[in-house]
Specification:
Length: 315
């Protein structure tokens, strides 16, 4: 069995699993066409440009972080149009394919097109995604405790000191660099340079925090556009859903996102009808709007490319 055959088989299985998971969620909550109609009728369309803008901010933050990681790994800082473009396209593809893999693939391809190392681009893309996952996993600790206690205020009070503790742990890992070099001397030159600069690590960590804050704002905006769930409850849900969807690696986190939000919101006592409306809107808006952003980005890239191609001939 060739590598391509294995990839197609794994991708096909993940799509089937995602469909089964979302089907069970659909049946468990007895969702009907009327629920979808109610969700669409309740949408406040003026919130859509706000959500699109927040998604662009999300991509911009990732683009900046990827550039910092690329430089830390010994490469050149990518042009903003390359880092933003590859990030926007990865987000669009991630709505129906595994998002972490799309980010790695698009970053690697972007480097190849720019004449840089595709392997380093993929590695820096993986570190870029891993930064979100690590911080979300850390914040999932107070979020999980708040969920068990049924009090979202626990998370709101505990999240800031947890972020500080996380930064202290990151600096502790930096101090362990000599130990890592002794353990893996033949591999350390490839990935340890990113630990050299305290400023770079602080930059990466700060952007990771800002991205979780921004994702929380996106979730709030979807809620204001569609439902009446508690903002505090949604704030607690964000890191927990980030962890479950990242672990699942299913296309677009289909099914896993819905089950995660459902379980968390219901454990906090949210009204089931409001929960369903929010989750349907979340799936609709965070599928359509990232694709629109990716399409707009591709159009701008193509227009710039065509203009650059015509300019020499006109001269």
């Amino acid at each position: 069995m060739t590598n391509w055959t294995k990839r197609i088989l794994i991708s096909s299985m993940s799509v089937i699993i995602a469909i089964v998971v979302i089907w069970f969620w659909w049946r468990a909550f007895e969702i009907e066409t009327n629920d979808v109609t109610a969700m669409v009728s309740r949408l406040h369309w003026l919130w859509l440009p706000v959500i699109l803008l927040l998604l662009a901010v999300h991509v911009t933050l990732s683009a900046r972080r990827w550039s910092v990681i690329e430089v830390g790994l010994g490469g050149q800082r990518p042009a903003f149009r390359v880092s933003f473009g590859s990030g926007a396209i990865a987000m669009g593809l991630g709505t129906f394919l595994p998002a972490p893999l799309m980010n790695v693939a698009c970053r690697g391809l972007a480097n190849r097109i720019a004449g840089a190392s595709g392997g380093r681009g993929a590695l820096s893309g993986a570190i870029d995604q891993g930064s979100d996952f690590v911080l979300a996993g850390l914040l999932a600790i107070p979020a999980g405790f708040a969920l068990l206690q049924g009090d979202p205020n626990i998370y709101l009070w505990a999240a800031p000191p947890t972020v500080v503790v996380g930064l202290a742990l990151v600096f502790a890992v930096m101090r362990a660099r000599p130990i890592l070099q002794r353990l893996w001397p033949e591999k350390s030159s490839a990935w340890i340079p990113i630990l050299l600069s305290r400023k770079s690590i602080l930059h990466i960590y700060t952007i990771s925090v800002l991205r979780i804050v921004n994702l929380t704002l996106i979730t709030m905006a979807v809620n204001y556009a569609s439902g009446e769930a508690s903002p505090k409850t949604l704030a607690v849900a964000v890191p927990l859903v980030m962890v479950t969807t990242a672990i699942s690696m299913l296309p677009g986190a289909i099914g896993v996102s819905e089950w995660s939000f459902s379980a968390i919101l219901q454990l906090f006592g949210e009204v089931p009808e409001e929960t369903v409306i929010f989750i349907l809107a979340n799936r609709l808006l965070l599928t359509v709007l990232p694709i629109i952003l990716a399409f707009m980005t591709m159009m701008i890239v193509l227009l710039r490319y065509n203009r650059s191609e015509r300019t020499p001939s006109e001269n």
